[in-house]
Design a protein that fits this description.
- By secondary structure, the chain is α/β, with parallel strands linked by helices.
- The chain is built from 13 helices and 23 strands.
- Helix 7 links the parallel strand 10 and strand 11.
- The N and C termini lie far apart (49 Å).
- NADP nicotinamide-adenine-dinucleotide phosphate binds next to helix 6, helix 7 and helix 10.
- Keywords: Oxidoreductase.
- Pfam families: Aldedh.
- GO terms for molecular function: oxidoreductase activity, acting on the aldehyde or oxo group of donors, NAD or NADP as acceptor.
- It comes from Actinopolyspora alba.
Length: 527
């Protein structure tokens, strides 16, 4: 079956939602697409969560090679969808097919990367403090520690990555890798894509004989079905990517539960770019070209879009602004993900451009096509920026605000007063390194990733990546939603004190039967 049917997938069973449903809209044409996707009810949430809870003890106890095989099989099943998936995602999102083909590769590559992580067996991070102490100098209890999965996880897919941050995206993949069943609330912007991927996941669960409740996907409105999911007592953690208001609503719902649970919400970031004077003097034109390329890529609909530029005013900055403004003015409009996102962009840009202390430097060319984004470059002074928090807010789309500073001290003052960010970028020549060294500790405090002489869009999936940061970039700065470290969000440590040897889990058992990397009496090694 390669066409979406409009059905939800609950623990391996197709279920037609009831009541008013949704149809996807092709944002490039404004036309609605078939079929209709019926919304789930509280009973469907209950069914998915009951199945997830039943699946949990079996799934978490499955040999790690079997869990890894599940992730690999999901990747294979998604790859097999090939053109069908790209076509559907293209018509539901307006994103170019080449970009979506790359996103399929990113999604399946991510699944396979987590599969090898699970196979390596490091996730439990075992520690052993045996009794008596190795040197026999004192007696103490025998304490052994490992990490276990939290339990069923609710995942809210993002609109701007219909594959890599959606049904089988980073949150789902890292939760499954940790040993947690997943219940996904599909995004209404791309329901057909969600269904196709959910079928691929469900088929993998069946093919590998995993418990059916390991995975479910529901359609429904966020405030109703989404809140019911987050407040279901079986759900133990939440992964979310989207707006600040949506993330905060889910955080409030999770905290108001009789037993609150963690919410890992990635929400909003302006991703400041600091242009230091010698770098501008050396290569203002090249920096402008790179900046506008990053700003306008994907109609600016990246969480890492460079929405803020900070620099000391002077001839070098003016040269950069002139080149960047020319390039923005010549840029073509591109289709945004949904009519709502296009309206929100136009409204927010209109408000910002009308702000008395903001000057519009350039706006991209217009078009009659629906739901498009005209890139925009605006500017203000650092004093105004520091005095008015409304100027700090993200405008989701290809809009950037330049903050002109009086001197290096004021530039650092801006850095000190930024909200939490996913990224902070510095362009620095060698002669700027003393200033960059003063800036770096300030940027570490506000951002999850600091990068030099590049652009923040394009987040590499790897072992060292951090896609996170202090509020409002995320609701919990201690983790990442991209890269293998993401799995740690869904694990917690348990200590086993004087537990009889026969009852100990293998990862912490005497003799290290699985030959895992463990810390024994503080010493790391395979012992
Ligand atoms: P969104 O409106 O936050 O929606 C994301 C998900 O959260 C959807 O499934 C939505 O459900 C649910 N949701 C929203 N509000 C909720 C609430 N009050 N209670 C419970 N669930 C709720 O994000 P979006 O639709 O992807 O885009 C809207 C805006 O989000 C954009 O204009 C942009 O500002 C921002 N955004 C930011 C990022 C980022 O990475 N920083 C990425 C994407 C979007 P329903 O829609 O079905 O109700």
């Amino acid at each position: 079956m390669t066409r979406p049917t409009g059905h939800m997938l609950v623990a391996g069973t197709e279920i037609a939602g009831k009541g008013a449903g949704i149809r996807a809209v092709d944002p490039a044409t404004g036309q609605t697409l078939e079929p209709e996707f019926g919304h789930g009810s509280p009973a469907d949430v209950d069914r998915a969560c009951t199945a997830a809870e039943e699946a949990f003890p079996v799934y978490r106890a499955a040999p790690r090679n079997d869990r890894a095989a599940l992730l690999d099989r999901i990747a294979d099943n998604i790859d097999a969808l090939n053109e069908t998936l790209v076509e559907r995602a293209h018509s539901e999102s307006g994103l170019p097919k080449a970009r979506l083909t790359g996103e399929v590769g990113r999604t399946t590559g991510q699944l396979r990367m987590f599969a090898s992580l699970v196979r390596q067996g490091d996730l439990e991070a075992p520690r052993v403090d045996p009794s008596p102490a190795a040197d026999g100098s004192r007696s103490r209890p025998d304490i052994r520690q490992r990490r276990i999965p939290l339990g069923p996880v609710a995942v809210f897919g993002a609109s701007n990555f219909p594959l890599a941050f959606s049904v089988a995206g980073g949150d789902t993949t890292s939760a499954l890798a940790a040993g947690c069943p997943v219940v996904v609330k599909a995004h209404d912007a791309h329901p057909g894509t969600c269904e196709l991927v959910a079928r691929a996941v469900t088929r993998a669960v069946t093919e590998l004989d995993m418990p059916a409740g390991t995975f479910s996907m529901l359609f429904g409105s966020g405030p109703e079905l989404g809140t019911a999911l987050v407040t279901d007592p079986r759900i133990q953690a939440v992964g979310f990517t989207g707006s600040r208001s949506g993330g905060l609503a889910l955080l409030a719902a999770a905290q108001s539960r009789p037993r609150p649970i963690p919410v890992f919400a990635e929400m909003s970031s302006t991703n400041p770019v600091f242009l230091l004077p010698n770098a501008l003097a050396e290569r203002a034109g090249d920096i402008a070209t790179g900046f506008v390329g990053s700003l306008t890529s994907g109609a600016g609909q990246f969480c890492t879009n460079p929405g803020l530029v900070v620099a000391v005013d002077g001839p070098e900055l003016r040269e950069f602004l002139s080149a960047a403004a020319d390039s923005v003015a010549a840029s073509e409009p591109s289709t945004m993900l949904t009519p709502d996102i296009a309206h929100a962009y136009a409204d927010r840009l209109g408000e910002l451009a009308a702000h008395p202390s903001v000057e519009e430097l350039a706006r991209g060319t217009g078009t009659d096509r629906p739901n498009t984004c005209r890139p925009a470059l605006l500017a203000t002074d650092a004093g105004e920026f520091l005095a008015d928090e409304s100027l700090h807010q993200e405008v989701f789309g290809a809009c950037s605000l330049v903050v002109r500073c009086r001197d290096a001290e004021q530039l650092r003052e801006v850095a000190r007063n930024l909200e939490g960010q996913l990224t902070a970028t510095v362009h620095a020549a060698t002669a700027d390194h003393p200033e960059a060294a003063a800036l770096l500790p300030l940027l570490e405090r506000c951002a999850g990733r600091v990068l030099f002489d590049g652009w923040p869009t394009g987040v590499q999936v790897g072992h060292a990546m951090v896609h996170g940061g202090p509020f409002p970039a995320t609701s919990d700065s201690r983790g990442t939603s991209v890269g293998t470290l993401a799995v740690e969000r869904f694990l917690r440590p348990v200590a086993y004190q004087d537990v009889p040897e026969a009852l100990l889990p293998d990862s912490v058992a005497p003799g290290n039967p699985e030959q895992l990397w463990r810390r024994v009496d503080g010493e790391p090694g395979r012992h």
